[in-house]
Here is the input.
Amino acid sequence: MRMDKLKIGLFGFGVVGQGIFQVLGKSKNANAEIVGICVRNPDKPRAVAADRSLFTASPDAILGNPEVDLVVEVIDDARASYDIVRRALLKGIPVVSGNKAMLARHLPELIEIQRQHDVALLYDASSCGSIPVIRNLEEYYDNDLLLEVKGILNGSSNYILSRVFDHRDSYAEALAQAQALGFAESDPSFDIEGYDSLFKLVIITVHALGAYVAPERIFTYGISTIHDADIRYAREKGVKIKLVAQVVKVSDEHFTMFVMPEFVTPSKYIYSVDDEYNGVVIRGECYDRQFMFGKGAGSLPTASSILSDIMARRHDYRYEYKKSKFMQKPDYTTDITLRIYARYTMTDIPSVLRFTKIREQYAGEESNYVIGDVQLSELLEKRPQLSGADVFLANIPQFFLDRDN
Ligand code: HSE
Here is the structure.
């Protein structure tokens, strides 16, 4: 354990950066000090009062400062984040990062740099805000009995769905509110189109199964096209619509992953996960299901996860990536059947998507829907044609009934 004060170089002073500043101030035992803050515009007025002399616009002022022994990176721009994290690691400076878009794209390279340069990169805050999902997957579930990690990984879209579904707010109002509360990404389409959940799922899978799958290989469908007709349908059936990300072992040799809205029945843990909360269900061979619940977005919840990684560095903690090093990794497959609900008006979904079985079909004045079985590979292939504003898809988790949570 390190006894002297940890000197932090902070990159980014937005919602999360300011939260870190506050959380470090609240923690009496952190014994850590921010010695520099790199931002695009040091002169911008900020709600949280930090000494003006700490601010710089030059990454080199932090990366070249020999006093800095930990870089904390919480900037918005994935490209700039990659550059900073890579440069810090190559210099042997450990990093705590919250940038899921960057990590999901560059983890294999960043894992290799950590190994080659014997330096640590921690990123629990990147996935599920305050829920310590990465470190738990890495340390507690460090065996091959894990079958599935499934959950609500994005606070903003969950907030929107809760407001629309439970409080009958309009979609636009709910989105504006998620932005005002600091939950949404600066480009909220990442939240509502499912990409934020996707990036988190990619990172989670590295620690759940030891396998990396590039984001573009994973079927991702969001909530932006949800319509009153879908909400009415879900209410009639007594279910909620949630944006769910999942990685599932479908056999000893294979696993699958996807992100899409899902009809969730009241008996499921994630049914009660509302507002900006996230919920992660972990299923294993010997313990059936475990459930982690907590705030998934927002300044202080995310900053608390960063604080946990900062404290872990006091004890020289690092991820060992044990599963990818020592376990037989399953292979990724999209060769599985899903049962889906597809609502459409202009785009003739039954002629776009090859259903292996149609179970129900409805044609109405306002819209139509079809419920049927379709291969995940088919959804992935046809993804560009499913982007019409008149189409909404939801998973009906029939095919995972024995694993359904
Ligand atoms: N925009 C993200 C969310 C922030 O809403 O979950 C936390 O990663």
Notes: The longest helix spans residues 100-117. The longest strand covers residues 254-264. The two ends are 40 Å apart (CA to CA).
